Amino acid sequence: MSGNFSLIIKNGSCFIEGKLKNIDIGLSGNKIKKIGKIDLNSAKVFDASNKIVLPGVIDTQVHFREPGSTDTEDLESGSKAAVLGGITSVFEMPNTNPPTSTLAEFDKKIKLAKNRMHSNYAFYFGATPENSDQLSKLKNLDGCCGVKLFAGSSTGKLLVDKESDIEKVISKSDRIVSIHSEDEEILKLRKKFIKEGDVKSHPEWRNAECAMSSTRRVVKIAERYNKRIHVLHVSTKEEVDFLAMHKKNVTFEITPQHLTMYAPDCYDKLGSLAQMNPPLRSKDHYDKLWVAVKKSIVDVLGSDHAPHLKANKDKKYPNSPSGMPGVQTILPIMLDHVSKENLSLEMLIKLMCENPCKIFGIKNKGYLKEEYDADITIIDMKKEQIIKNDMIASKCGWTPFNNYKVKGFPIATIVNGKIVMENNKIISKAQGMPLKF
Ligand code: DOR
């Protein structure tokens, strides 16, 4: 077959049915139309010789701060950072100001995103102790990836800390409930461990038991009601052991920060720039998180892109806010781990392309298949790059990986059939669409 392709990706090594195959991909509009040998010269051609062609890479946890803190990030700047980093779709978090915890606020965000986001997108609906009766209305809502529940307080005002309220949210939600799992009661009790000016006390305050206690609670509730939950940014060895035995109702995420840095070195090097919730912890936890990757216990990787202005991060701990940017660096950092043979490329694709689609039910994405959406990330595994603050498109303008050298880098991002990023430059206008579930 020939045909009228709007774009042909030629000579790439394409990840198809679990293997890399040298093959061409013909796109028509926003769909993958043909995978095979394509002898046609009239259409626009992208020469992918010596490059690897992946299904569009998805970041399932970003905070783009709009509405509320648009001096730090907005939907446009955050999604620019995403496509520059090879990310084609994002799940964006509701701890904005006001929070995305009513249908009116949700609708407002969908409208704010239109023609401004460079990647595709879905938004989380934020759970509160009062809004569980709204959750049934999210059932077939396009652009909604699920419900976010903060069991422990972090940035913003969203919090559902009482067990009876957590139970109400999980039992009443038809969509997956993704959980920031730290125990608020323990956080309050352990405030005495905060040492002013010493960010190394952050993981003492928000200790492993604080995370484990909450995770034990939410998993039991999910099992009691036979509901599906997703535990975000798992950070402890105890949770990995526990979650490995409770996979029926539960999936979980690890961040690249927790797989690349550990205490105390990260705090010596970065000070409060390394401060996040749940915290970066000691090497024994880091080692166990890698076991979760290597043994395929973990389900997805998410960046928890949580930008804060440098001026605020430079405040004396604990007045410094928690979180660091990551949507632009998650793929380069993880490709570098692939180069170092810490995980296979196949595993990375499972964690960042296939599993997000399977777990959250995203339609028509996650694989290079005919009739699937033409969201594609093209990478060069030989490209070496030093990550620098001045490459960062996030309005915060810094990265915890400044001066970090990686091998393996995204060189083009295709969203809805259009090349939006090529060689570190954005080359088309914002035309991201809400994800369908
Ligand atoms: O460190 C964090 N920062 N963890 C979160 O869960 C929230 C995030 C933020 O929004 O700043």
CATH class placement of the largest domain: Alpha Beta
Residue share in helices? 25-40%
The fold-level CATH name of the largest domain is: TIM Barrel
CATH architecture annotation of the largest domain: Alpha-Beta Barrel
SSE class? alpha/beta
Count of helical regions: 12
Spans where pLDDT lies below 50 across 5 or more residues: none
| CATH homologous group name of the largest domain | Metal-dependent hydrolases
User: Mind describing the biggest β-sheet?
Assistant: 9 strands, mixed
> Which band does the percent of strand residues land in?
15-25%
Compute the separation of the termini in Å.
31 Å
Would you kindly provide a written description of the structure presented here, covering whatever features stand out?
The chain is an alpha/beta fold and 437 residues long. It has two domains: 7-53 and 372-426, Urease, subunit C, domain 1 (Roll); 57-360, Metal-dependent hydrolases (TIM Barrel). The protein has helices spanning 75-84, 103-113, 163-172, 184-189, 202-205, 208-225, 237-244, 265-270, 283-294, 310-313, 330-339, 345-360, and strands at 7-16, 19-28, 31-36, 45-47, 52-55, 57-62, 87-92, 120-126, 144-150, 177-180, 229-231, 250-254, 300-301, 376-386, 405-415, 418-422, 425-426. The strands form two sheets. Strands 1, 2, 3, 4, 5, 14, 15, 16 and 17 form a nine-stranded mixed beta sheet that branches. It has an eight-stranded parallel beta sheet with strand order 6-7-8-9-10-11-12-13. Strand 9 (144-150), helix 3 and strand 10 form a beta-alpha-beta unit. Helix 6 runs parallel beside helix 7 (237-244) and helix 7 (237-244) packs parallel to helix 9. The site of (4S)-2,6-dioxohexahydropyrimidine-4-carboxylic acid (DOR) has 11 residues, from loops. (4S)-2,6-dioxohexahydropyrimidine-4-carboxylic acid (DOR) binds at residues 63, 95, 154-155, 180, 276-277, 304, 306, 322-323.
